[in-house]
Write a structure and sequence with these properties.
It contains five helices and six strands, in the order ββααββαβαβα. It is an alpha/beta fold. The chain has a single domain, classed as 3-Layer(aba) Sandwich (Leucine Aminopeptidase, subunit E, domain 1). α3 (about 90-110) packs parallel to α4 and α4 (about 130-140) crosses α5. The longest helix has 18 residues, at about 90-110. The radius of gyration is 15 Å and the shape is globular. The relative contact order is 0.23. It binds adenosine-5-diphosphoribose.
């Protein structure tokens, strides 16, 4: 089932939290910065071990990779790189859908049963909240996605605006949502 929370994703006691990273995986601001701060320096060291697929790129946009969570309560961090919003006609919705699909695929491959997503691309990368919410929820509620692992999917908004965008998307898509506890 899908839960919508408002709070700091680094505090969540789930098997994996998803990081909205950049293609270098060398950290940044926003949720990426918060996760690296909370996980400690071993996270950056683990990311550095991920081979570059081309100069400066360890994780191409839309793809996902997994590391341990180190000092985080979460056992794993699934790093994914969302698209930078360029108006919506450059494949952004498809890349954002890929982020969610690939994160869920990695979670399944690692027996992860609870996973928390931030609002990927909705900060520095400028993706409009409502459009991003619709993409995320349509992927996460895709046929069968809610019956297989991970059984607990948390959407963790840092602000009320994003939490509401997810709630409205849930209503529009008629998705069952469990507790909507606010932290
Ligand atoms: N917990 C949950 N959500 C958070 C947190 C947090 N601690 N901190 C920020 N957020 C939210 C933001 O409010 C936003 O809604 O995460 C969402 C994504 O915003 P960004 O972190 O800016 O990520 P994104 O838009 O995908 O841009 C990625 O920013 O930090 C850099 O290295 C990162 O270059 C990459 C780019």
């Amino acid at each position: 089932m899908i839960e919508i929370l408002q709070g700091d994703i680094t505090t969540l006691r789930v098997d994996a939290i998803v990081n909205a990273a950049n293609e270098s995986l060398m950290g940044g601001g926003g949720v990426d910065g918060a996760i690296h701060r909370a996980a400690g320096p071993r996270l950056l060291a683990a990311c550095r071990k991920i081979p570059e697929v081309r100069p400066g790129v360890r994780c191409p946009t839309g793809e996902a990779c997994i590391t341990e969570g180190f000092d985080l309560p979460a056992r794993f961090v699934i790093h994914t790189v969302g698209p930078v919003w360029r108006g919506g006609d450059s494949g952004e919705p498809q890349r954002l859908a890929d982020c969610h699909r690939n994160a869920m695929k990695l979670a399944r491959e690692h027996g992860i049963d609870s996973i928390a997503f931030p609002a990927i691309s909705c900060g520095v990368y400028g993706y409009p909240r409502d459009a991003a919410a619709a993409v995320a929820l349509s992927v996460l509620s895709e046929e069968g996605a809610l019956t297989r692992t991970p059984h607990r999917i948390v959407l963790c908004a840092f602000d009320a605006g994003m939490a509401n965008a997810w709630r409205e998307a849930v209503q529009r898509l008629h998705i069952a949502v469990t507790s909507e506890s606010l932290e």
